[in-house]
């Protein structure tokens, strides 16, 4: 490994820490930090492959951290639609105008985020009938845009769950969703090289440290503050999608 590789890997490890911290607090959103900055250091396919492995590890750690707090009826209601959405995202929708779809999704996410910020813990509870919509949307956006978390977070943050139940339930959902993404990237050939795996392995300690710090911080968050933090991350997600779509 050259000195340039070592410097690049060190920078990616810092991004892994930051991304894991965001993920540990909200259960999604790590790619908003890691991918836009990582592509200044490494090619986009490499960044997506490496951080999908790290995100998968984070999802398993958060999801299995407190599984008894997860509401089984909620995440089990989401999963079938996640599978369908992932399959559709990999096949039927690959030829659609992705830029326009990305902008539309960004506008929607941004509108919901503003509602979260304004309403705080008093956000309106939605019906469980929206679960298939959230799961399907998350499956599609995960494979098409690498951003699957916002649909799940929007739905679960409006189901009246405690902050512990929200985090654990979203964690169980993201375990499934991000693992499917890793499988999809492997099928696409993005994870057949040893280098993304090796660099992800080197960055695991930084990622785990970010999750550890997030766990400590999470204990001091009220549900109202958590809803607002989710709103801030959703704002960043919406703006990121709009900018990427327009670009």
- Which percent band covers the strand fraction? under 5%
Report the count of strand segments: 0
Question: What's the SSE pattern?
Answer: HHHHHHHHHH
Principal-axis shape: globular
- Mean model confidence by pLDDT: 81
Q: Distance between termini? A: 35 Å
Helix share bin? over 70%
Structural class: mainly alpha
In DSSP terms (H or I, runs of 4 or more residues), the helix count works out at 10
Biggest sheet architecture: none
- Given as residue ranges, the uncertain stretches (5+ residues, pLDDT < 50) are none
Radius of gyration: 17 Å
Question: How are the elements arranged and paired?
Answer:
Blueprint: H1 3-26, H2 30-38, H3 44-63, H4 72-90, H5 98-119, H6 131-145, H7 149-157, H8 163-187, H9 194-218, H10 223-246
Q: Can you tell me about this structure?
A:
It contains 10 helices and no strands. With 247 residues, the chain is mainly alpha-helical. The model has no long low-confidence stretch (mean pLDDT 81). It starts with a helix and ends with a helix. α5 (98-119) runs antiparallel to α10 (223-246).
